[in-house]
């Protein structure tokens, strides 16, 4: 047990250090880039990145948790598991490209933006190699991967600064973002070889691929819905307002989303720990407690200091973004909650409950967006998201037995630190 806790802490430290580096450097360069591009171009830049972001769950096909679970079970060869998963992702990537084309045509986007989306989506061609990351998570061997990815990130950040100083166009930054994603995948391959392993040894078992696809399908829908919930508002803002307004919205979102790694890291690391233990109620409460208090601290700071933060970070060019920052921080608390919910039900092999809840939130959110954006403008998108999460996750879910149990754990987690202090 001590060895497990030691490995978890070590890998959590690796991931946390990497993302702290990304947060600090990324925030600095991102702010500089926003100031350089201006509100409208920065809105376009974020829209292109968000467009691919929404379709990423289809490309990944929810295989991360499935690969980890299969490897932890130890019933099949790791090469067979990884090969079969990559076979699925080959087809899922092609499907995602087709869907992106259909959506871009339906939205009647300008030709220039369609070109940007095409260039950025090319980076997903090597996506099957991302399964290596899931393998390393299952083995809790993330040190080399973190070190190499941090190096790539710093190089790309330096290139962005050079591009800004050279006065490069928006097209150049889109290409650079695509190159970054490609190099991240190549780093996976490099680390895998350093582990004295080779993708050439991967074996495709079509029956296993079909089984894994069925097992992961609910996660595909749930992850797609979660990604959609975090970015669908930008689609509505573009269609109902302008890219300039989206630039203000995205600038405030950038300051919050640099913390998006927190629920992901906590969830990924604790997921392996929860799978290892049968009597895991205490671990679940600790898990939810860490998620809640991290999100609450972040939200409180942004809610109180929103105006000072925007003025200090972006200057007068982005005045008007403070109202977005204020409410976006509150909305972001539900992202932490949703990350915990996803992993909790995944550990119980009840992924269909994630699908039900997420679909409810997405449907309510879309309907509220159509009403509230029209009434309140872009800020209505945030109101819609907060209200949708509240109605579904904190009211409707209490009427469902399985969600009631999870929510009890979550409520206990809120007072967990006070209980520990008393002890």
How many strands, what sense, and barrel or not for the largest sheet?
none
Helix content: over 70%
Strand content: under 5%
Shape by Cα distribution: globular
Integer-rounded radius of gyration: 21 Å
- Helix/strand class: mainly alpha
Number of helices: 15
Weakly predicted, low-confidence segments? none
Distance between the termini: 22 Å
Mean pLDDT: 79
Report the order of strands and helices. HHHHHHHHHHHHHHH
Number of strand elements: 0
Topology diagram in text:
Elements: H1 2-60, H2 63-73, H3 78-106, H4 111-121, H5 131-139, H6 143-166, H7 170-194, H8 206-240, H9 243-257, H10 261-276, H11 281-314, H12 322-347, H13 351-376, H14 379-395, H15 401-422
Helix pairs in contact: 1-3, 1-4, 1-6, 1-8, 1-9, 1-10, 2-3, 2-5, 2-8, 3-8, 4-7, 6-7, 8-12, 8-13, 9-12, 10-11, 10-12, 11-12, 11-15, 12-13, 12-14, 13-14
Give your account of this protein's structure.
With 423 residues, the chain is an all-alpha fold. It is built from 15 helices and no strands. Helix 2 (63-73) runs antiparallel to helix 3 (78-106) and helix 2 (63-73) packs antiparallel against helix 8 (206-240). It starts with a helix and ends with a helix. The mean pLDDT is 79.
Keywords:
423 residues; mainly alpha; 15 helices
Short characterization:
This protein has 423 residues and is an all-alpha fold. Helices cover 85% and strands 0% of the residues.
């Amino acid at each position: 047990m001590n060895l497990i806790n030691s490995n978890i802490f070590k890998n959590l430290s690796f991931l946390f250090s990497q993302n702290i580096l990304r947060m600090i450097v990324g925030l600095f360069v991102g702010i500089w880039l926003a100031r350089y591009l201006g509100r409208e171009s920065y809105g376009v830049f974020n829209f292109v990145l968000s467009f691919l972001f929404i379709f990423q769950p289809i490309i990944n096909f929810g295989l991360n948790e499935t690969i980890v679970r299969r490897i932890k079970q130890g019933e099949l060869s790791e090469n067979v598991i990884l090969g079969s998963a990559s076979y699925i992702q080959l087809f899922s990537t092609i499907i995602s490209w087709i869907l992106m084309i259909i959506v871009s045509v339906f939205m009647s986007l300008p030709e220039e933006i369609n070109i940007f989306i095409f260039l950025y989506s090319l980076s997903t061609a090597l996506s099957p190699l991302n399964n290596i990351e899931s393998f390393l998570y299952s083995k809790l061997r993330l040190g080399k991967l973190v070190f190499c990815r941090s190096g790539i990130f710093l190089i790309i950040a330096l290139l962005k600064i050079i591009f800004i100083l050279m006065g490069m166009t928006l097209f150049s930054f889109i290409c650079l973002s695509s190159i970054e994603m490609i190099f991240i995948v190549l780093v996976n391959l490099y680390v895998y070889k350093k582990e004295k392993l080779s993708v050439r040894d991967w074996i495709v078992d079509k029956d296993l691929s079909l089984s894994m696809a069925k097992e992961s399908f609910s996660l595909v829908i749930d992850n797609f819905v979660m990604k959609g919930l975090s970015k669908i508002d930008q689609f509505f803002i573009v269609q109902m307002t302008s890219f300039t307004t989206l630039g203000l919205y995205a600038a405030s979102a950038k300051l919050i989303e640099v913390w998006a790694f927190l629920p992901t890291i906590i969830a990924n690391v604790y997921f392996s720990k929860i799978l290892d233990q049968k009597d895991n109620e205490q671990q679940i409460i600790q898990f939810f407690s860490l998620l809640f208090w991290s999100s609450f601290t972040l939200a409180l700071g942004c809610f109180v200091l929103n105006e000072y933060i925007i003025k200090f970070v972006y200057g007068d060019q982005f005045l008007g973004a403070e109202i977005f920052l204020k409410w976006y921080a509150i909305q972001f608390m539900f992202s932490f909650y949703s990350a915990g919910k996803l992993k909790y039900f995944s550990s119980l092999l009840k992924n269909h409950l994630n699908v039900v809840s997420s679909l409810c939130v997405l449907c309510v959110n879309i309907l509220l967006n159509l009403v509230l954006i029209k009434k309140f403008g872009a800020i209505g998108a945030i109101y819609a998201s907060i209200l949708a999460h509240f109605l579904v996750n904190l009211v409707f879910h209490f009427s469902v037995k399985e969600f009631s149990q999870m929510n009890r754990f979550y409520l206990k987690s809120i007072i967990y630190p006070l209980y520990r202090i008393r002890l």
